[in-house]
Automatic annotation (TrEMBL):
Keywords: DNA-binding, Transcription, Transcription regulation. It holds the Pfam family LacI. Residues 2-56 form the HTH lacI-type domain. InterPro entries: HTH_LacI (IPR000843), LacI/GalR-like_sensor (IPR046335), Lambda_DNA-bd_dom_sf (IPR010982), Peripla_BP_I (IPR028082). This is LacI family transcriptional regulator. It comes from the Bacteria.
């Protein structure tokens, strides 16, 4: 199926010029318009949702591609789905949810049938098959997340690298020089999800810049796996005085349970910071200092950027939401004698 990119290439013009030629929203030379229309005819280009929008006809529906995987953490996933839907409704848009694991066929189907005005892409992988499809379709689209190859795309996300740096800075400011990181389950990294490696790599970079010793583990979501992971952290870093948790809520709960069983008090014996948590952390015992991942921040901006594209092409961009820190009392200076508390 020919795309608007193909039309632009054959006509020897930019994508925006093709858009203007099809919509009539701007005056262009008659010869240029003829070249564009000739290219449309020769390629058999069928105006999809993007082209129809430029012609002034809208469906007021966005497709939200948010596939579920075996290791998808449903509470966080659905928080983002809901935030997109709420933002869309504020702009009189509805959302068509595409949840199948193989999302590319769904994108082609809704675009070719002109069901939607644009596409919002959620749960972005570093190497995401949907990137090529979006480029091929030539429809307005916003990614909530950043693939490795983001050229020509419109993306918005929390600045996970800056969030990791902020976590390290807060702990270093309290005097910590040996910090452990507990990440998501191994399957999330193996699947290529874009944000866990961004946070992990940002954490290592910030720790190195501050001369901080680190260790990193990826437990499964069950209690025994978390217990083994903590053992591994303390074995590698017996002088560890702080933990950063970049993981699901169940792992947070399990970590605090194990620490409590071992007589480790937060923050007296071990400081703990919840990083990029999509859930509240004030219900834990004790409440945890947090750098939250607020779904509404990126989702509302993603919807706004999608609507801007409905009105015409915009410049490709990556917009990063600055992280924020909230103190709950779970960070304190390290104990006088790190390693003196019982840890097994």
């Amino acid at each position: 199926m020919a795309s608007i990119h193909d039309v632009a290439r054959v006509a020897g013009v930019s994508i925006s010029t093709v858009s203007y030629a099809l919509s009539g929203k701007r005056s262009i030379a008659a010869s240029t318009r003829v070249r564009v229309l000739d290219a449309v005819e020769s390629l058999g280009y069928r105006p999809n949702a993007g082209a129809r929008m430029l012609a002034g006809t809208r469906t007021n529906i966005f497709a939200l591609t948010a596939p579920f995987h075996a290791d998808t953490y449903a509470p966080a996933h659905m928080a983002f789905v809901l935030a997109v839907a709420q933002a869309a409704r504020e702009h009189d848009y509805d959302v068509l949810l595409l949840t199948q694991d193989e999302a590319t066929s769904g994108l082609r189907r809704v675009a070719s049938s002109s069901l939607v005005d644009g596409i919002i892409v959620l749960d972005v992988a570093g190497d995401d098959d949907r990137v090529a499809v979006i480029r091929e379709l030539g429809v307005p689209a916003t990614f909530i997340g950043i693939p490795r190859d983001a050229a020509g795309l419109v993306c918005v996300d929390l600045d996970f690298e800056a969030a990791a740096a902020l976590a390290v800075e807060k702990l270093v400011a309290a005097g910590h020089r040996s910090i452990g990181l507990i990440g998501h389950s191994p399957g999330v990294y193996a699947r290529g999800s874009n944000f866990p490696p961004r946070f992990r790599d940002g954490f290592f970079a910030a720790a190195a810049a501050h001369g901080v010793e680190t260790a990193f583990v990826m437990p499964e979501r069950d209690g025994p796996s978390v217990r083994i992971a903590l053992d591994a952290l303390f074995a590698e870093r017996p002088d560890m005085t702080a933990l950063v948790l970049h993981a699901e809520e169940s792992i947070h709960t399990a970590v605090l349970d194990v620490l409590r069983e071992r007589g480790l008090r937060v923050p007296r014996d071990l400081s703990v910071l919840a990083a990029c948590a999509s859930f509240e952390t004030d219900h834990f015992e004790p409440p945890l200092d947090t750098i939250p991942l607020v779904a509404a921040d990126s989702c509302w901006r993603a919807v706004t950027l999608a609507i801007e594209q409905v009105s015409g092409p915009i410049e490709p961009r990556i917009e990063l939401v600055p992280p924020r820190f909230y103190e709950r009392g779970s960070i304190a200076p390290p104990p006088d004698r790190p390693g003196a508390s019982p840890r097994s």
